[in-house]
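C-alpha coordinates for chain A. Residues wanted.
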Protein backbone atom coordinates (compact mmCIF):
# COMPACT_ATOMS: atom_id res chain seq x y z
CA UNK A 1 0.00 0.00 0.00
CA UNK A 2 2.81 2.42 0.89
CA UNK A 3 4.66 1.78 -2.38
CA UNK A 4 1.44 2.51 -4.33
CA UNK A 5 1.34 6.08 -2.97
CA UNK A 6 5.10 6.64 -3.05
CA UNK A 7 5.13 5.77 -6.78
CA UNK A 8 2.49 8.47 -7.27
CA UNK A 9 4.68 11.17 -5.70
CA UNK A 10 3.47 11.10 -2.09
CA UNK A 11 6.03 11.75 0.65
CA UNK A 12 5.70 9.07 3.32
CA UNK A 13 6.12 9.80 7.04
CA UNK A 14 5.50 7.99 10.33
CA UNK A 15 3.96 10.36 12.86
CA UNK A 16 3.78 10.19 16.63
CA UNK A 17 3.62 12.46 19.64
CA UNK A 18 5.09 12.25 23.12
CA UNK A 19 5.16 14.08 26.42
CA UNK A 20 8.26 15.37 28.16
CA UNK A 21 7.83 15.98 31.89
CA UNK A 22 10.06 18.36 33.83
CA UNK A 23 10.35 15.60 36.41
CA UNK A 24 13.55 13.77 35.42
CA UNK A 25 13.47 10.57 33.44
CA UNK A 26 15.57 8.35 35.72
CA UNK A 27 17.40 5.31 34.39
CA UNK A 28 20.05 3.00 35.73
CA UNK A 29 23.55 4.33 36.15
CA UNK A 30 27.00 3.57 37.53
CA UNK A 31 27.86 4.75 41.02
CA UNK A 32 30.63 4.00 43.48
CA UNK A 33 29.83 1.10 45.74
CA UNK A 34 28.52 2.40 49.05
CA UNK A 35 27.67 5.86 47.70
CA UNK A 36 24.16 7.24 48.00
CA UNK A 37 23.31 8.95 44.70
CA UNK A 38 20.84 11.82 44.92
CA UNK A 39 18.59 12.74 42.04
CA UNK A 40 17.66 16.42 42.06
CA UNK A 41 14.31 17.26 40.51
CA UNK A 42 11.54 19.83 40.43
CA UNK A 43 8.35 19.25 42.34
CA UNK A 44 6.22 20.28 39.40
CA UNK A 45 3.76 18.84 36.95
CA UNK A 46 4.99 21.04 34.12
CA UNK A 47 5.40 19.27 30.84
CA UNK A 48 5.37 19.88 27.13
CA UNK A 49 4.53 17.73 24.16
CA UNK A 50 6.25 17.05 20.87
CA UNK A 51 4.97 15.89 17.51
CA UNK A 52 7.40 14.27 15.16
CA UNK A 53 7.57 12.61 11.76
CA UNK A 54 10.36 10.55 10.25
CA UNK A 55 10.79 8.64 7.03
CA UNK A 56 14.38 7.40 7.13
CA UNK A 57 15.66 10.49 5.31
CA UNK A 58 13.89 13.45 6.87
CA UNK A 59 12.71 14.34 10.36
CA UNK A 60 10.46 17.16 11.54
CA UNK A 61 9.57 18.02 15.14
CA UNK A 62 7.46 20.70 16.81
CA UNK A 63 6.68 21.43 20.44
CA UNK A 64 3.27 22.22 21.92
CA UNK A 65 1.80 22.89 25.35
CA UNK A 66 -0.96 20.34 24.87
CA UNK A 67 -2.04 17.46 22.64
CA UNK A 68 -5.42 17.81 20.97
CA UNK A 69 -6.99 18.04 17.51
CA UNK A 70 -5.94 21.70 17.18
CA UNK A 71 -2.27 20.91 17.65
CA UNK A 72 -2.58 17.96 15.25
CA UNK A 73 -4.05 20.36 12.68
CA UNK A 74 -1.23 22.86 13.24
CA UNK A 75 1.39 20.15 12.74
CA UNK A 76 -0.36 18.83 9.63
CA UNK A 77 -0.49 22.37 8.16
CA UNK A 78 3.22 22.72 8.85
CA UNK A 79 3.94 19.45 7.01
CA UNK A 80 1.53 20.15 4.17
CA UNK A 81 3.23 23.48 3.39
CA UNK A 82 6.51 21.61 2.89
CA UNK A 83 5.12 18.47 1.26
CA UNK A 84 1.83 18.97 -0.63
CA UNK A 85 1.41 15.23 -1.26
CA UNK A 86 1.57 13.45 2.09
CA UNK A 87 1.07 9.87 3.20
CA UNK A 88 1.09 9.58 6.99
CA UNK A 89 1.30 6.38 9.00
CA UNK A 90 0.07 7.02 12.55
CA UNK A 91 -1.67 5.42 15.50
CA UNK A 92 -5.36 5.48 16.38
CA UNK A 93 -5.19 8.36 18.89
CA UNK A 94 -8.56 10.07 19.48
CA UNK A 95 -7.32 13.45 18.20
CA UNK A 96 -6.46 11.84 14.85
CA UNK A 97 -10.11 10.81 14.42
CA UNK A 98 -11.68 14.20 15.21
CA UNK A 99 -13.97 15.48 12.45
CA UNK A 100 -11.97 18.73 11.90
CA UNK A 101 -8.83 16.66 11.32
CA UNK A 102 -10.63 14.28 8.96
CA UNK A 103 -12.04 17.21 6.98
CA UNK A 104 -8.59 18.80 6.71
CA UNK A 105 -7.07 15.52 5.49
CA UNK A 106 -9.77 15.11 2.87
CA UNK A 107 -9.64 18.74 1.70
CA UNK A 108 -5.85 18.59 1.21
CA UNK A 109 -5.72 15.02 -0.14
CA UNK A 110 -3.50 13.80 2.69
CA UNK A 111 -3.57 10.01 2.84
CA UNK A 112 -3.32 8.17 6.15
CA UNK A 113 -2.70 4.61 7.24
CA UNK A 114 -2.86 3.29 10.79
CA UNK A 115 -0.49 1.17 12.78
CA UNK A 116 -2.13 -1.90 14.31
CA UNK A 117 -3.69 -1.15 17.71
CA UNK A 118 -1.49 -1.58 20.78
CA UNK A 119 1.73 -1.90 18.79
CA UNK A 120 3.97 1.10 19.58
CA UNK A 121 7.04 -1.01 18.83
CA UNK A 122 6.03 -0.92 15.16
CA UNK A 123 6.26 2.89 14.98
CA UNK A 124 9.87 4.00 14.36
CA UNK A 125 9.03 7.45 15.74
CA UNK A 126 8.43 5.80 19.12
CA UNK A 127 12.02 4.58 18.97
CA UNK A 128 13.23 8.15 18.40
CA UNK A 129 11.30 9.32 21.47
CA UNK A 130 12.78 6.48 23.53
CA UNK A 131 16.33 7.34 22.39
CA UNK A 132 15.77 11.06 23.00
CA UNK A 133 14.40 10.55 26.51
CA UNK A 134 17.25 8.20 27.32
CA UNK A 135 19.82 10.78 26.10
CA UNK A 136 18.33 13.37 28.48
CA UNK A 137 17.88 10.90 31.35
CA UNK A 138 19.25 11.44 34.85
CA UNK A 139 19.63 15.17 34.23
CA UNK A 140 18.20 17.98 36.30
CA UNK A 141 16.60 20.75 34.25
CA UNK A 142 15.81 23.87 36.31
CA UNK A 143 13.04 25.05 34.01
CA UNK A 144 11.00 24.05 30.98
CA UNK A 145 12.90 26.24 28.50
CA UNK A 146 16.22 24.60 29.41
CA UNK A 147 14.67 21.17 28.95
CA UNK A 148 13.17 22.14 25.55
CA UNK A 149 16.56 23.43 24.38
CA UNK A 150 18.20 20.14 25.36
CA UNK A 151 15.53 18.07 23.60
CA UNK A 152 15.92 20.24 20.47
CA UNK A 153 19.68 19.74 20.60
CA UNK A 154 19.27 15.97 20.86
CA UNK A 155 16.69 15.87 18.06
CA UNK A 156 18.90 17.99 15.79
CA UNK A 157 21.45 15.19 15.89
CA UNK A 158 19.06 13.51 13.44
CA UNK A 159 18.53 10.15 15.06
CA UNK A 160 17.23 8.65 11.84
CA UNK A 161 15.72 5.21 12.14
CA UNK A 162 16.09 2.74 9.32
CA UNK A 163 12.38 2.55 8.66
CA UNK A 164 12.10 -0.19 6.15
CA UNK A 165 13.12 -2.86 8.64
CA UNK A 166 9.96 -1.86 10.53
CA UNK A 167 7.71 -1.77 7.51
CA UNK A 168 8.73 -4.94 5.67
CA UNK A 169 7.44 -7.55 8.08
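Reply:
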Amino acid sequence: MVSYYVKRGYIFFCLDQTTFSLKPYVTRGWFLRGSRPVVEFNWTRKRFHAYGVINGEKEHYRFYDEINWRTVMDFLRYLHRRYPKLLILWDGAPWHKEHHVKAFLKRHDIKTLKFPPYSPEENPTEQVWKTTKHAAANTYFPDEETYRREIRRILHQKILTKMFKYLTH
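The longest strand covers residues 11-21. The first helix runs from residue 2 to 7.
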